[in-house]
Structure formats: structure tokens, C-alpha cells
Write a structure and sequence with these properties.
Number of helices: 14
CATH topology: TIM Barrel
Number of strands: 14
Shape: globular
Largest sheet: 8 strands, parallel, barrel
Oligomer: single chain
Helix content: 25-40%
CATH architecture: Alpha-Beta Barrel
Order of helices and strands: EHEHHEEEHEEHEHEHHEHEEEHEHHHH
Strand content: 15-25%
Low-confidence stretches: none
Strand order of the largest sheet: 1-2-3-8-9-10-11-14
């Protein structure tokens, strides 16, 4: 089982720095982060190509962002690391994220029916670059202008970088259902399949599609089967957020459970053993930077108030030592850890760190250059991982599951936890 981590380009030491910016970042610090990843035995890194930055308007690609991204790819290659690129993602860590041109209502769409639908839909707080906005999200799946902008992005980015030797694959449109809930999973499946087809036409030879517990709870969302049928590899995001985020903090049960559910669905629906080898993403737990902060803290996750548990470093180390071997024995294809290095407390003023505890402290290194206990635990675990196995998945019946997925997911979670006691 391969193990990688998410690395955001390190911010420059100035207050106006932009998180996850490929246009302006500390190249020396990124080189150091990649060296650390190589030395501990990681095989992959995930780079988020921030949508609002790389495509500042629907018809323009930011050259500065692509230049900085290219340099990041070169640094990864120099350290023998493969890169999964997250492209067109609607999330940035635990924040909702879109370019500003994807927000609002175009004048030609202002009909009485459209206005009624907008008023009936709760507004979400969306981060574009440095500002939070509360505006309706345009129809990302059917609006011709939105589709044209997405295709342009795929052509310019994948077309220019697909041949780079560091590229391992492309993660397309992660978390997009969170900003614009679909009305029918068949429409969602057709939309994602079109993205995948166009990405391959521009040279992408490996594609990933992501779901999470929220998507698994919604019958209209993209499904694991849809991704597999479009030729993509399935990724399940297991970050510390609802609806399973209220379980025991800093332990691996929820991560292993979500992997088992997705693998179980694929085993029943797809006649391909390789398709059941699911990637687990966003594995990580926020830690308490000060002892008095340990415990539940008010936070925000995907524009909703939430309680986040800040664990001590030793608990996170134990969770990693438990979850990673369990996922290997269960046949997980890979695990992408949530974060590499925490931002400084001064940078907590910058979105999305200003509202979210996970983004502040789920890294494996502190901001001042100290490895957390989880880093050493990771080193030991990588060196002793069991061979990739094929433990039986959860007995999931797809027809029953998708009739009422939210209820079924909660039922399976209760049963899973009862067996773990």
C-alpha cells in the first residue's frame, strides 16, 4: 500500500500571503518538505491546484500559478516523488472554495422560477481567494458557460502537464457536491464521465474521483460505481468532519469503516477486482498546540459550525499505527495523509485557517520545524506495513443502501462500532 501526503505550497512570511498559492510561495521550504517526505518513505504527494487562483476568470489561466506549479513538479521529481494533482476541487481543506465567476446568477437566468429556487436554497459561505462570499453557486453541471470554463481548464492544465514525469494522476472535482448539490446521481455521473473523457483526451492516463461520507449519505451524489464506470479510481475522503466526525476522536474506526463501505459497494456493483482497491484520502487528526486546548473546540467545517476535537500528539501517533496497517490488510490501494506542516499562529488570520481547526493543526510537523509524535510513528509504520491484503468488506447490499443511504450508513456505522467493542 502506497502512502502519500497533501502538501500545500508554503506561504511566504508576510501577512497578506495566500494559502495554497502556487503563484507566491517559499520554494526553499517546499524543497525541504519534499525532502522530508522522501526520507521517511512516502511515495506520493498531493498538490491542490487552487481553482480560484489558476483560473481567475472563465476564459483566462494564470501563468504565474502554472509556472510555480511547474517548479513544484520539478522539485517532486528531483526527490523521487509522484504527484497527484487535485484539479477543479470545490474544497480547500475543510473550507468550501470556488472562483468568484462561478458564483452569483447570470442576468439571462433571472426568471421568476430561478429567483424562487435561489431564495429556497440556503446560502453557503464560499472562499474564493482571500474573501468569503455568500452568493448562490451557478449550475456547475449544466450551465453552458460553466461547462466551457471547466473544459478550458482541463485543456490548459492537463494538456500542458500530463507528460511531466512526476505526474501520477489527476483528482477531478473533489467535493463539488458540497457547493452545488446535484438533483440526480445519473446527471452527476454523466457530468463526471464527460470530465474524465476530456481529461484523457488531453493526455491524462490516470484519473481519480472522490466521495466522502456526505456523498455516501445522498442518493443524488456521485457514487463509487459512477467513478469506476468512467474509468476512474475511487477515493474516499475520511477527514475529521461530519457525519461520522462525532465518533471517538483521534482513532481509526471511521477511516476503516468508510473504506469498507466503499469497497463493499464496489465489490457488489463492479465486476473488476482492481476497482475495489480504494484510495483513502485526508487521513489525519488535528492536535492541540497547547495542553489547555486539548478537547472539543468550536470550529467551522464546510461553512457549517462544528465541534472539532484537538487530540494530543501521542493519540494521533497511536491512531496512525492502528489505521494504516488495518487499511493495508483490507486492501486499500493507497492512503493520502491530510497535511504535512501546520501554519504559524500568525497565519491563522488567513483563510481558511481563520475558521477551521483541522486546517491549522492536522499536519505532521509543527510550524516551528518540530516533528510531531505522529511523524515518528509514521516512520515506524511505513517500515513494517503488512502485505496488501483483501480482508472481506462489509456486507453492503447496493439496492438497499441507495434507497436510503443516510439511514443505511448510520446503521452500518452502529453495527461496525458494536463489533469493534
Amino acid at each position: 500500500m502506497d502512502i502519500g501526503t497533501t502538501i500545500w505550497p508554503p506561504m511566504l512570511a508576510r501577512p497578506q500571503a495566500l494559502a495554497a498559492s502556487w503563484s507566491r510561495y517559499d520554494h526553499g521550504a517546499l524543497r525541504e518538505y519534499l525532502q522530508r517526505a522522501r526520507e521517511i518513505g512516502l511515495q506520493h504527494v498531493r498538490f491542490d491546484l487552487r481553482w480560484a487562483e489558476v483560473q481567475p476568470s472563465a476564459q483566462r489561466i494564470a501563468v504565474a500559478a502554472l509556472d510555480g506549479f511547474h517548479r513544484g513538479l520539478d522539485l517532486a521529481q528531483a526527490n523521487g516523488l509522484h504527484v497527484v494533482v487535485s484539479l477543479m476541487s470545490a474544497t480547500l481543506g475543510p473550507a468550501l472554495h470556488l472562483p468568484d465567476w462561478a458564483l452569483g446568477v447570470p442576468a439571462q437566468a433571472l426568471t421568476n422560477q430561478a429567483v424562487s429556487e435561489i431564495l429556497a436554497t440556503p446560502a453557503l459561505t464560499i472562499l474564493d481567494n482571500t474573501f468569503y462570499r455568500r452568493e448562490p453557486v451557478r449550475d456547475l453541471y449544466a450551465d453552458p458557460d460553466m461547462r466551457a470554463a471547466q473544459r478550458y481548464l482541463l485543456r490548459e492544465v492537463i494538456g500542458n502537464f500530463a507528460a511531466h514525469p512526476a505526474i501520477h494522476g489527476w483528482l477531478l472535482a473533489a467535493g463539488i457536491e458540497r457547493v452545488r448539490p446535484p438533483t440526480d446521481h445519473r446527471d452527476m455521473a454523466a457530468w463526471w464521465a464527460d470530465l474524465a473523457e476530456r481529461a484523457r483526451a488531453h493526455g491524462a492516463n490516470r484519473l481519480f474521483g472522490q466521495i466522502d461520507a456526505a456523498a455516501l449519505s445522498n442518493p443524488a451524489s456521485l457514487r463509487p460505481y459512477d467513478i469506476a464506470m468512467a474509468g476512474g479510481e475511487v477515493v474516499v475522503s475520511a477527514g475529521p468532519w461530519p457525519p461520522l466526525g462525532d465518533g471517538p476522536p483521534a482513532r481509526g474506526e471511521a477511516v476503516c469503516f468508510l473504506h469498507a463501505v466503499v469497497a463493499g459497494l464496489l465489490a457488489e456493483e463492479v465486476n473488476d477486482t482492481a476497482a475495489t482497491q480504494v484510495v483513502v484520502a485526508d487521513l489525519g487528526w488535528p492536535t492541540a498546540p497547547r495542553p489547555q486546548w486539548r478537547g472539543w473546540q468550536s470550529s467551522e467545517i464546510f461553512a457549517q459550525p462544528a465541534q472539532t476535537f484537538l487530540a494530543d500528539e501521542e493519540a494521533v501517533a497511536t491512531a496512525l499505527q492502528t489505521a494504516l496497517p488495518a487499511l493495508a490488510r483490507a486492501g486499500a490501494a493507497a492512503v493520502w495523509l491530510a497535511g504535512m506542516v501546520d501554519p504559524t499562529e500568525e497565519q491563522w488570520k488567513i483563510p481558511p485557517f481563520d475558521r477551521s481547526w483541522p486546517a491549522r493543526t492536522w499536519g505532521l510537523w509543527t510550524a516551528d520545524g518540530r516533528p510531531k509524535a505522529g511523524w515518528e510513528a509514521l516512520r515506524e509504520t511505513i517500515g513494517s506495513l503488512p502485505a496488501q491484503g483483501t480482508l472481506p468488506t462489509l456486507p453492503v447490499e447496493p439496492d438497499r443502501f441507495w434507497r436510503d443511504p443516510a439511514t443505511e450508513l448510520r446503521r452500518l456505522w452502529r453495527e461496525y462500532r458494536a463489533e469493534m467493542v
